[in-house]
What does this fold into?
Amino acid sequence: MNIPLNAPYIGRTEFKYVEECLSSTYVSSAGPFVGRFESAFAKSVGSSFAVACSSGTAALHVALRLAGAQPGATIAVSDFTFIASANAAAYTGADLLLVDSEPQTWNMNTQLLLEEVHRRARLGKKIPQIVEIVHVLGHPADMAPLLELREKYGVRIVEDAAEALGSRWISGPLAGRQVGTVGDFGCYSFNGNKVITSGGGGMIVTGDEGLADHARHLTTQAKIDQREYLHDEIGYNYRLTNLAAALGLAQLERLPVMLEEKRRIAASYSELLRGLDISLAPDVAWAQSSYWLYSVLLSAGAASPASVVADLAAAGIEARRVWPPLHQQRPYASTERVGADVADRLYGLGLSLPSSVGRATSEQRHVAHALSMILQNPDKIAMETARSIRS
It folds into this structure.
């Protein structure tokens, strides 16, 4: 591909820190970069404590377990999300309740969930003990109804902010807060395609020191003695390595620049694509997105997302369909769900465009031009499109 979907942006500090880590020989979970990364990350998002993990999925698994997820419990999960969100919940043995999206931000319809919980409570039926809310594609979700659930029913909240580092609410009751800092836990991912990367890794944040200590304990196999192989509960090999933390810390130091660039890319796409018969990426007045991946909805009856992805690929442009909703995935096909078909519509029409930081602005113009040609000439073969764009 000539124009990648979302390549990492690596600078000189990353090489410097990684070389320093290698020279120290502390490349595993022992070493100073892990603690430095945790401290700097907590400060960056406005949380009290942070615990580094081997992946965003590992972070979610531990956070959900500490929130009370276990066999017999029910976790409400966004239907429209990457499957890891549901898998982490399933690891705990809890039951899942899939909740449809709302069309403004594509996030969980939290008002719908609130009404469903009220209905179940009136009827004396079991309600979810935990809500795992995903900030989809970097856009903050409407969490006000979840705060009501927490206040009235004691529901625990775990934020899946894997794609949304640096996103925030700019008006309303959560104005000034960053995603991941409102729930009992916030979880982030540092996979190679995320806003910042440590090559692979994740982070849990919480305002509770005891929960942070317990999370750190669980991620280190629940070991209670550094000199003896003694363990007091079932734990996991989920700690981030010092080597990965060195890369993550260097990336974190450049986060403001990368967020500024992500938002510039989004603004540019919104301008370039405004005349096309598509719905632009979600952008509501009360929130500021990280725009992890700039994603649009094609018009119903137009070219299919799959064919557009193929035609863009022929033009040297890597685009991608958005995820199928979880209820369309084989492991969750029989899972209980609430809501109708918004998630299905998002999947049927959704498309993510190249959003890499550090790429030339001219590449966005190529993407917009190619997409325009494909949508206006859906019957032309992909090679003709590619030849026109490159000429």
Remarks:
- The radius of gyration is 21 Å.
- Residues 89 and 287 are 27 Å apart (CA to CA).
- The mean pLDDT is 95.
- The longest strand covers residues 49-53.
